[in-house]
Amino acid sequence: MGMNLKMTMDKNEMYIFIIWNKVRYEEESIIDDLSKKFVIRNIIEVTWSQNEFLNNLKKFYGRSLPDAKEKSYLCGTGPFLVVVVSDMNPKFNEPSKSGISLERDYVNTNILNCKLKYRKLIGKKFTIHSSVSKNETEHNLTLLFEKNIEDLQKNFLLNGME
Does residue 158 have a pLDDT over 60? Predict the structure, then answer.
């Protein structure tokens, strides 16, 4: 467990924020705020085909998404932004205190608080997505790009990486 904790607490740990299509009118202010709090590694515009959008949402969110059609109305089905960030001063909730992620995941409260702040700015829940743990980031990146963090680093898709 100690080794896992060390890996989880890595200061170069990556997270993603998704600014869904219908709320991209706030992208400048969100990206500006993110740049003040985190190191932005990359910003990637993603387009899912209209035919596959609902299926992709179901795959992305899994059982935590009760209604993919409702989510698509809320977020839009057009191009969305994926902002990859590193938190150089992470703060973690122990898994037993979180209730947000899987039992063994340490939740980065800096990331979580930003996601909640941006949702409040927009005035609607679930209009901004963020990964809040290492496992969630790996899962999200794999589903979005068929690559994990290590793959992205090797392929130089993350700006500022050594």
Answer: no
